[in-house]
Design goal:
Length: 248
């Protein structure tokens, strides 16, 4: 009997070849490397501003913060959410969302993501977008990082290797792979509220990996043949993920 997962693997490899030529793969990986070189001076995560509770933030909304920012002289107030402990993080300005009805389960997103972000290593295990299939129901769904308002992954990291990407302007929650020690605490923290957990683990390199929105140009969105993935952006910041959304 032929195993279903083997059929899927063969289909995945053949379909991947239809959408990405070898030259295209290398060009994408090289461009990513050049982008990383330009980001060596990446800024740190946490900024200190007057403390505002999460309840006040969610209740007041953007309009209230605009007034507060004008009166306090803090230009970045619209990008800030404060935790009870006083720690404050910039809201992500972009997020990749999924229209489940349009997803065909083709795994194009996984092939593109892993190839672009892992120096040409194409593997679903290295993809920052995770496709789940229910073979009995015929349901397919791509799971993307929500770039959470309160990123549990960032709070759980014992060495502060997960940071806010201010350099690219996305404010995505990203892993500084130079600082990551492979503790996997970020994976466990995310998995406590989201299934599957969005951070992955690169076994070969011994570091955690997660979606960084391709620094503002998410390749999974660009190459999805059915438009199931959409890149949503707001200059004022997006309020998605934990604690607004919980799964499992």
């Amino acid at each position: 009997m032929i195993r279903v997962d083997r059929i899927e693997e063969v289909f995945y490899e053949k379909f991947k070849g239809l959408i990405l030529t070898q030259k295209g793969i290398l060009d994408m990986a090289n461009e990513k490397d050049r982008s990383l070189d330009r980001r060596d001076s990446q800024e740190q995560v946490v900024r200190k501003t007057p403390c505002i509770s999460r309840r006040q933030f969610l209740k007041a909304g953007v309009a209230g913060f605009a007034f507060l920012a004008g009166s306090s002289g803090v230009r970045d107030m619209l990008e800030i959410v404060a935790f009870a402990e006083g720690e404050q993080l910039a809201l992500a300005k972009g997020v990749v969302l999924v229209d489940k009805k349009l997803c065909s389960g083709c795994r194009t997103c996984e092939a593109v993501c892993s190839t672009y972000n892992s120096s040409g290593r194409s593997s679903s295990a290295l993809a920052r977008v995770i496709l789940e299939k229910d073979y009995l129901k015929g349901d397919y769904e791509a799971n993307t990082c929500f770039q959470c308002v309160e990123p549990l992954c960032l709070q759980a990291c014992p060495v502060g290797a997960i940071k806010i990407d201010k350099k690219s302007g996305t404010n995505a929650r990203i892993v500084d792979e130079e600082e990551c020690i492979g503790a996997k605490d970020c994976i466990g923290a995310c998995g406590s509220v989201f299934t599957p957990p969005r951070p992955r683990f690169d076994v070969e390199r011994g570091v955690a990996i997660k979606c960084h929105l391709c620094f503002g140009d998410p390749q999974c969105v660009k190459f999805c043949p059915y438009g199931a993935l959409q890149f949503k952006w707001s200059d004022d910041g997006v309020k998605t993920g934990y604690p607004i959304i919980k799964e499992g």
